[in-house]
Design a protein that fits this description.
One of its GO terms (biological process) is tetrahydrobiopterin biosynthetic process. It catalyses: (4aS,6R)-4a-hydroxy-L-erythro-5,6,7,8-tetrahydrobiopterin = (6R)-L-erythro-6,7-dihydrobiopterin + H2O. The chain is an alpha+beta fold and 186 residues long. It is built from 7 helices and 4 strands; from the N terminus they run αααααββαββα. A 4-stranded antiparallel β-sheet has the order 1-2-4-3, with helices on one face. Bound molecules: ligand H2B. The site of ligand H2B has 9 residues, from loops.
């Protein structure tokens, strides 16, 4: 009978070893159970896009504010889209953003009503500056002259990575109030 080792997730945040070797180390040669641990970690915490796949755990384990993190290059070969479950666990950290599934591709989505067409372009410019600084870019939509919708996803993997949540959190940190239409009085 293989005894599943119940390792408190927080204790996994300290070691700096790749996820697979960590599970192998933790569970010895019990191939099936070590694969099980890797599945648990990947499903529950979403293996990060960073080179050392435990980096992503820090976000989930320490609750480090996403807006203080930096996006990583999207061309690393081990980057993969996070699971829907991992995305659902991160979405509360980016107020105002929704998780949408467009043809099987999960994306972050947020809309604003701006005061004018040109204020919409000013909003795009503020977001563009953040995107350029992070080398991670949103899809920008301005329709019906004053309806702005921003979509964020990682094109290189065809889904969501931690980069997308970092960018959304940094956009949330922008002062956009002067560009937005006041909400109609109730
Ligand atoms: C190397 C660099 O990370 C890539 O060219 C970036 C540029 N900006 C990007 N932005 C988004 N949203 N997805 C990408 O895959 C992406 N790739």
């Amino acid at each position: 009978m293989i005894r599943m080792l119940r390792v408190p997730l927080l204790s996994l945040c300290k070691p700096k070893v790749p996820l697979v070797s960590l599970s192998g180390t933790l569970l010895g040669t019990h191939g099936r159970s070590s694969i099980r641990v890797t599945e648990i970690l990947q499903n529950h915490v979403g293996v990060s896009s960073n080179r050392n796949s435990l980096c992503g755990l820090k976000t989930f384990c320490t609750g480090q504010d996403l807006s203080s993190k930096k996006c990583v290059p999207c061309n690393s070969k081990d980057m993969q889209p996070m699971t829907e479950q991992a995305a659902n666990e991160l979405i509360p950290q980016v107020a105002g953003w929704s998780l949408v599934n467009e043809g099987g591709i999960f994306k972050l989505n947020r809309s604003w009503k701006v005061k004018s067409f040109t204020k919409g372009l000013e909003l795009f410019k503020l977001i563009a500056d953040v995107a350029e600084a992070e080398a991670h870019h949103p899809d920008l939509h301005l329709v019906g002259w004053n309806n702005v919708t921003i979509e964020i996803w990682t094109h290189a993997v065809g889904g969501l990575t931690e980069n997308d949540f970092i960018l959304a959190a940094k956009i949330n940190g922008l002062d956009l109030q002067h560009l937005l239409r006041r909400k109609a009085a109730a």
